[in-house]
Amino acid sequence: MNNIALLLIRIVFAGSMLYGHGLSKFYRLIEGNLSFANPIGIGEAPTLVLAVFSEFLAPLFILIGYKTKIFSFFPAATMFVAAFIVHLSDPFARKEKAILFLIGFIVIMMMGPGKYSIDRKFS
Asked: Is 65 helix (H, G, I), strand (E, B) or coil?
């Protein structure tokens, strides 16, 4: 039962991140529209590339359960920045989704992918 729960949490959090956030950023990057927020001061284009990695590529790997603990760090870090840097002075309702994603990816990072994953096929 725990393995099914881990599969569900991976599908819900990684799928939601990928579809709800990462896909639009991926399309933006592919189209060459590099204008983007710069909350940590590394430039708009590098920030967009990091966001695509954290919100599109890493969730793909999390979905299939490949190196899940490692790849979960990246969306968790991105959601930390979103909640506590980008939306720091905003009301809780504005940062709530970022905090929920942050906690979800921390749980995935701590628990691992479970039995139904690519990692389990090779271990």
From this structure: coil
114 Ramachandran zone, left/alpha/beta (phi>0; psi -120 to 50):
left
Amino acid 55 reads E
The residues, any chain, with a CB within 8 Å of residue 57's CB and separated by 6 or more, are: 22
Domain ranges (residues) in the chain: 2-122
- Number of Cβ within a 10 Å radius of residue 37: 12
Question: Does pTM top 0.70 for this prediction?
Answer: yes
* pLDDT tens, residue by residue, 45-99: 999 999 999 999 999 999 999 999 999 999 999 999 999 999 999 999 999 999 9
Q: How far apart are CA 48 and CA 38, in angstroms?
A: 9
